[in-house]
Amino acid sequence: MAKKATNKKESLPMEEMLWKVCDALRGSIEPSEYKHVVLSLIFLKYAGFHFKKRRQEIIADGLADFVDSVEFYAAKNVFYLPETSRWSYLKENAKQPDIASKVDKALADIEKENKPLQGALPNNYYSSLGIEAEKLGSLLDKIDGFDEILASADGNDIIGRVYEYFLSKFAIKEGKGKGEFYTPKTIVNLIAEMIEPYEGKIYDPCCGSGGMFVQSLKFVESHNGNRRKVSVYGQEFTKTTFKLAKMNLAIRGIAADLGEYAANTFTDDRHKDLKADFIMANPPFNQKDWRADNQLTDDPRWVGYDTPPASNANYGWILNMVSKLSANGVAGFILANGALSADGVEGAIRRKMIENDLVESIVILPRNLFYSTDISVTLWIMNKNKKARVVNRNGQEIHYRDREGEILFIDMRQMGEPFEKKYVRFSDEDIKKVAGTYHNWQREGASQSYSDIPEFCKSVSLDEKGGIKEKDYSLVPSKYIEFVNRDETVDYDTRMKELQDELSDILRAEAESRTAVLDVFKSLGYEIEL
């Protein structure tokens, strides 16, 4: 335990030092480009270290004639590097005025030699940035200090943590309206602990930088599972984020099918026939104009449901995931709160999903969890099989209760701890409490006892008095959970929107009034400012 704590402590200054190095790029490139510059170099260092180590092993085994055989590297999950892609070569040329083009060539040559990396690395990126050679060389010097970390017992984990540290820092830095490529780790951990993706196919239809997959396999390892029993499928629309995901997964040694290229999940589904055992996702919130009015109206993913409205993709994402679930599949995904009570076509779809007994749990989350928005959001758990059954999971026999026609509501809005001054994250205790409550509700056994808790959780059936049918199939947790000390009859998110609209109207009226006053003075020959 002490050793593990020491390694973690030692890695922190390296992470912070590299983050400070990013400030040296200020003025040379846009802040939104920092992540691509730094993370690609971290990948080159990682690949170079393991290539050198594997090369030495091949020679030591008396197989010097095969030091340039790609197969001898791929067999050990190591990328083969041609001479121009090796870290030693880049380091030697770090002070050269053409170092940017040399980095571009290094990345291109690695892609050419390693099929799993095709389409993953930046293409002629550094040369096009116009970054000063001196600053790029300085960055190479700093990253060169990774050798000691990579050589440590948990070097791969540390380099992965550095990568994740940068992804989270970049997401925070880019802030509202940006950072969609990253889902905060504590949210992903919560989903993983609830749906327990021990083995089978895991799918993310909007995988961003691949964080769902990373944390899924960490979950498997932390519970003594076998990651070889897990296969990963995903899709990402944004090209640069698609590359981030492939690099992130490569550093972690995770093989994944993300499709041959970045693509729109709705209009170019790369996994049409997939039936996933687990789905984890954080789709774009309230995505508008995701399809044309006459587009995708007969898509097989909506069979049995109305076509989701073109004005909002929330239910398009939900039905896409429902269509991909296996017979016993479970999905955990994040959506904006509006989907809980939306009416019209969305309301009809929600009603049909509830009647089809797909919705298993709704967990409302606190505000300020995300770096790209401050709105309150909801975790949905969908389950294709809520019947009583016995399942062997990770070598353990689990007895599930019959929860047909029931939904578990959980309120986490009073949970979480401060993070980075203006954000919130879940503690391990928060995650354990919520996941434990959910599993106790699901399962039978001496240690699995569930009871409703005011202001925290409530199990509600479809037909009971005050139940889901009576509440017009709304999934807003505050309509069901008992609140003792707070007035939860108010939909605070809706009320906040109403207040914001009122304020906008006041400000607009004030601006119009000011303009009218200025026009009066102007007509009298006076030029004034208000």
Can you describe this structure in just a few lines?
This protein has helices spanning 2-23, 34-60, 70-74, 87-92, 99-113, 125-129, 133-143, 147-151, 155-174, 185-195, 211-222, 239-252, 314-324, 344-355, 428-442, 492-523, and strands spanning 200-204, 230-234, 256-257, 276-281, 325-336, 359-364, 377-383, 389-393, 396-400, 406-411, 417-419, 423-425, 457-461. The protein has 530 residues and is of the alpha/beta class.
Short descriptors:
530 residues; alpha/beta; two-stranded antiparallel sheet; 42% helix; disordered N terminus
Explain what the structure shows.
The chain has 530 residues and is of the alpha/beta class. Helices cover 42% and strands 13% of the residues. The strands form three sheets. A nine-stranded mixed β-sheet has the order 3-2-1-4-5-7-6-10-13. A two-stranded antiparallel sheet has the order 8-9. α2 (34-60) runs parallel beside α12, α10 crosses α11 (211-222) and α10 (185-195) runs parallel beside α15. The longest helix is centred in the last third of the chain and has 32 residues, at 492-523.
Strand content: 5-15%
Helix content: 40-55%
Q: Number of helical runs? A: 16
> What's the Cα radius of gyration?
26 Å
Largest sheet, spatial ordering of strands: 3-2-1-4-5-7-6-10-13
Choose one word for the global shape.
globular
Mean pLDDT over the full residue set:
84
| SSE series | HHHHHHHHHHEHEHEEHEHEEEEEEEHEH
Multimer state:
single chain
Contiguous low-pLDDT stretches (5 residues minimum) are: 1-12
Biggest sheet: strands, sense, closure?
9 strands, mixed
| Euclidean distance between termini CA atoms | 66 Å
**Helical/strand content category:** alpha/beta
Number of strands: 13
